[in-house]
Protein 1
Amino acid sequence: MAGFNVPIDQDLRWRISEGSDLMLHSKHIHGCQFRLVKFIESSPSASMCGWKDTAPISNGGNVEIYVRSP
């Protein structure tokens, strides 16, 4: 994946997709934590709420996250 620039001190909403890969992958963003907005097309369960640093994605799924750029 190529690098990209993100505005400083701004609220962002990202959608991360596993694509066609069906294996479990834990997605991690260096240097920040995030909150799950959608987890596999629905609201996250109580155990998935709060600030996270990884999000598990499997079966070609996706997550939508809220992140504040550092």
Protein 2
Amino acid sequence: MTRNKLNIWLFIAFGLMVVWALGGIVLLDRNAVPATSEAKTPDSIKVLIRTGTEAAALRQLLEPFERSTGIHADLIEVGRDGYFTTVGTQLLAGSDTFDLVFVPNTSVAELASAGAIAPLDPFIDNPALTDRKAFDLPDFLAVYRYNGTIYALPTDISTHFLYYRSDLIPNPPETWDEVYELAEKFSQSRDPASPTKWGLAMPAVVPEERTKIFASLLWTFGGDFISDSDGHALLGKPESLQAAQFMQKLLRNKLIPGDLLYWDFAKTRDALLSGDVAMAAPFWNAAYPAILSDKESRYAGNIKIALLPGMKDEQGHIRRAPFQHGWTFAVNASSKHPEWAWKFLSYATGKQGGALYVKAGGVPARRSILSDPAYAASRPDFRLILKSMEVAREEPSVTYYPSMVEITEKALAKIYTLESSPEEAFREASNDLNRLTAANP
């Protein structure tokens, strides 16, 4: 074969290989297109939530929600210690790594003012997304607004109760004066033969626990943190000082633990169960189911709950003002799937989701569920929550809430350690609060 003929055959062979290769690519491509177009990607959202009882309860809603809507929801759990930092950093940076976020109602104003969470009214008012009659917005015990617009709805509601040993105290005290008398009777500092070490206990740790617990006392005595009208500090009011003086009186007479600043939810609950305290107040409603189910404590069956005590006015009426707050869901303003996020939010806070949430140990923020006779025996705390919520108050919904709490907790630390008088501690706090509110009109 001549060199020219060999070159011709090589050229033809090369050309055929190119045609075959290109044909193969086309065929592969044609086979790939239908596979891609036919693949069904499930609708999916990410839900950012803190680790704990709420996450465990909400996890029970995921499967029934997906069966009902076809939307898959993944929970992204973050530890409790770093949760607020993570939420603030991610939302304010405009992260779209999650669609729905679990936040306390006190964070709503700050996040809404920054445009980090989406208004919910457009979802609620859209008949294609929400059946308003079935959703029954008036059934909520609380909804959370900023500048008149709803930004968050609660999955949980919390308030403060009085816990007491019914074997020692047959009738719960109605006023804080009665609480003090009983605390004297059941404190070993006053009576070494007392069956309990202290007459009274309550959580007082930070962050926020101290301010929230003290709020019930502050409001019941007639005091307040700041004015609703102009944000002016009210901790210097005589009524506010009386609440702090009452706390110092309990501490000086050793009717409550001297190391109260280290008492958290678990330590307070355990002190009731171990028989160390006769009463706990103000204390969270969430402790009661755990106390009821405790099989080891010899005192659990004697621990009862009652409305938080109040102050008797000149007409003999008892004024009560227990604290309340809600853990809520809000839609991330940067979510790529806001309508799907709303579907999960409305399911989790709705009547169907709320009923499932009860089975998982939660406390839904819906009147219809808390008043349902079906729960009268298994959840006796529900009716007391409803009664408490009739007079309960929530903390100020302000954009500078974290700074307000930091100032207040610093003052309370000085009061609880007897380092400063209420007048001195609250005078300094009032000055700081007034500077804060002036800078955040």
